[in-house]
Amino acid sequence: MGGGAVSVFYEQMPQMLPKGTIVSVGEGETLLEKLLRREDFSQERCYVVGEAPPRDRLIHEWPTPIEKTACDYDYIEAIWPELTYYLQDPDFYIGVQTKRGCPHNCCYCVYTVVEGKQVRVNPADEVVEEMRRLYDRGVRKFWFTDAQFIPARRYMEDAKELLQKILYSGMTDINWAAYIRADNLTPELCELMVKTGMNYFEIGITSGSQELVRKMRMGYNLKTVLQNCRDLKAAGFNDFVSVNYSFNVIDERDETIRQTIAYQRELEAIFGADKVEPAIFFIGLQPHTHLEAYAFEQKILDRNYNPLAIYLPWVATKLLWNPGKLGEFFGNVCLEAMKDSPEGFGQKVMNILEQRLGRAPLAEALTAPLEADVTQQKPDEQRFVPTANIS
């Protein structure tokens, strides 16, 4: 057993699986090779149910470095004929991975523990070859399934190399999309993105308030993101952008909400209001994250809780991070938006918030005091209760 969910909840697996089951945590290629060769696999990131408990902090062990080659879809189809079913709709994006790992420390995210903080870049020639094999099967839309397509500035040259090779490949009628750290772009990269067919991307800033972005340890510079978006527009990008916002993060209050609204409106001014979709979500409190550790320290969660017991309301309400009176406020906003405009839910939420709270100057959203992140603050320094004009 393996995969993303198994890796996150590996500590709960022994109670759910029969004795002798091998539980793989994180990447599993080298484990599978050793199993097939009947070699010792005790040093891999795995354990056997019923033989010994998982090693302490198993999820945090570094993965085995491997160099990924292009998927052999002819072989995959030979052993799994149903493959063609998933390639038949030309409107679907098919996943291709260009790298693994994420070097960041976002307080709520499990990517850094599932894939590891060490970024391993797949050879550009192998990525293009994999795309070519899918292209020859009729695929024209690709989703780069990386945790971040450009996770840090040091990987910008790798992205440039890949996009140049896609451009030279002759696959001129494709589109691609990805989750992108938009603070790691240059005008040259923006031009390559447009030329190679990028027609959609996601920005996971979580908040339009630089203060809250800093407190969540996200490492984003929101001012840089805006400038790079302007460069992308100047390069000819005229397609869709999804921007992830998670309202009611730690220390959210009316002024930070107004800052996020200001940031969203500036993105709309750059790309067009009909091109920027606010994706509204609430952070899940997940195992092995800084946010879970913070919840333990603040007695929000018992250290012996079962993260899979989401069928229990007293557990589920704590695993969706939406505390205090502000949670009730956002619940009502979301219900109103869903009832009034289910197809334009995100934009409707933004409109309701602006009507009720107003909008901050953009400059206010882009600045933040230099102070410790919220997970290092004392309990009396937390501010969960909104000011009077929200309640």
What does this structure look like?
- With 391 residues, the protein is of the alpha/beta class.
- It folds into 2 domains: 4-60, no CATH class; 73-289 and 325-381, tm_1862 like domain (pyruvate-formate lyase- activating enzyme, Alpha-Beta Horseshoe).
- It is built from 15 helices and 10 strands.
- It has helices spanning 4-8, 29-36, 73-79, 111-114, 124-135, 156-168, 187-195, 210-215, 222-234, 254-271, 290-297, 313-319, 324-340, 345-357, 362-365, and strands spanning 22-24, 46-48, 94-96, 99-100, 120-121, 141-144, 175-179, 198-206, 240-245, 276-280.
- A 6-stranded parallel sheet has the order 3-6-7-8-9-10. A two-stranded antiparallel ribbon has the order 1-2.
- The longest helix is centred in the last third of the chain and has 18 residues, at 254-271.
- The protein starts with a helix and ends in a 26-residue tail after the last helix.
- Residues 372-391 have low confidence and may be disordered.
CATH top-level class of the largest domain: Alpha Beta
DSSP helix count? Answer: 15
Task: List the helices and strands in order.
Answer: HEHEHEEHEHEHEHEHHEHEHHHHH
Low-confidence stretches: 372-391
According to CATH, the fold-level topology of the largest domain is: pyruvate-formate lyase- activating enzyme
CATH architecture of the largest domain: Alpha-Beta Horseshoe
Quaternary structure of the protein: single chain
Give the N-to-C terminal Cα separation. Answer: 47 Å
User: Strand order of the main beta sheet, please?
Assistant: 3-6-7-8-9-10
Average pLDDT number: 90
Number of domains: 2
Shape: globular
Helical fraction: 25-40%
CATH superfamily of the largest domain: tm_1862 like domain
